[in-house]
Amino acid sequence: xxxxxxxxxxxxxxxxxxxxxxxxxxxxxxxxxxxxxxxxxxxxxxxxxxxxxxxxxxxxxxxxxxxxxxxxxxxxxxxxxxxxxxxxxxxxxxxxxxxxxxxxxx
Length: 106
What we know:
By secondary structure, this protein is of the alpha+beta class.
C-alpha cells in the first residue's frame, strides 16, 4: 500500500471520528482533541490512540467501543483497536479553534 493510499484511509478514519460526539459537550471527539493518533497497518488494521476528558468520564466504557465499531464500518479497514491513554492528560488547550469557537471560548 502506498503512502498516498494510507493517507486517504487515514482521512476517511478522521471523517468517521468527526461523527462521534462527546455526550456532555456538543463537539465531536476529533475537534475536542481526544484523538492523539491514528495508525493504519499494511494489513488495513487501524489503531486509534485517544483519551477522555477525564478518567471518570461517564462514557469511558462505551466511547472506545463506538469508535471501534464506526471505524470498522469503513470497507478499507479489517479491524480496529482503540487504546485509551491519559498521558498527556487532556486539557482544553487541545481543542481545535473550531471547537473553542463552537463552545464560545474565543
